[in-house]
Amino acid sequence: MAGASQPGRAIPPPGAAPRPVVWHLLVVGALALGLYASTLGAGFVWDDEEIVVRNPLITSLGNLPAIFRTHAFAKVSAAAPGHDLEYWRPVWVSTLALDHALWGLKPLGYHLTNVLLHVATSLAVYLLVLALARGATIALVAALLFAAHPVHAEAVAWVSGRNDLLVTLFTTVAFAGYLRVRSGGGPWTGAVTIAAYVMGLLSKESAAVLPALALLW
User: Fold this and answer.
1) Burial 78-108 (b: 16+ CB within 10 A, else e)
2) Which candidate in 23, 142, 143, 179 could, as Cys together with 131 as Cys, close a disulfide (CB 3.0–4.6 Å)?
């Protein structure tokens, strides 16, 4: 009979996404990690020299309030002509300050953070597609394609490219949270959704497109 439940199986409520499959998450995480494990031996390049190596803002966690009051290159623009763009991305810079507190100027730690952010984002994509498509198999395929797509190589392998990792992670979580709210999620889900979106905006301004995506959906 249509709509009847089978023994041992619960029918999810209308609008609810299916549960994630644990081995799917493990496979996606392993692929994202394995593909970029080689970057752990890389050094600092390009803007890393200014935003990490010679940036006094990130040398102390006591500077976190200052990071939220000024732009990313505020302390290095005078010494590095051409780096006077006023990017206000305090969450991005704050993660570099946290890395500095843990690792000093050892590149391995910064690259490890980038790789772990890529892993987290790939898992978030799986959960988002699971909510959008209501199918675990298509969510797995989408997340594997995301994890392996070469367009992410610069963002993962370049320490200063972390802003792209952060904005993608937070906006993906926020979009998934929005879908959860629409399907009956509680106030905590709404709070997490808003917090993730704000974190995305403070990582990179391209997060501003999320409301338009939600409206279109």
Assistant:
1) eeeeebeeebbbbbbbbbbbebbeeeeeebe
2) 179
CA distances from 30 to 39, 118, 141, 217 (A): 15, 11, 14, 31
> What does the CA dihedral 139, 120, 47, 42 come to, rounded to 10 degrees?
-100
Most confidently modeled of 8-12, 50-54, 64-68, 137-141? 137-141
Radius of gyration of the chain (CA): 20
Instruction: Give residue-wise pLDDT tens across range 31-52.
Output: 999 999 999 999 999 888 888 9
Determine the angle formed by the axes of helices 90-103 and 107-133, rounding to 10 degrees.
130
Say if CB 91 and CB 72 are below 8 A apart: no
Sequence spans of domains, the chain: 22-35+43-161
71/190 Cα distance (integer angstroms): 29
Locate all alpha helices (DSSP H) within 37-161, ordered by sequence. 48, 64-67, 90-103, 107-133, 136-148, 153-157
* Structural tokens at position 113: 């953070």
Joined together, the tokens standing for residue 15 give 């609008």
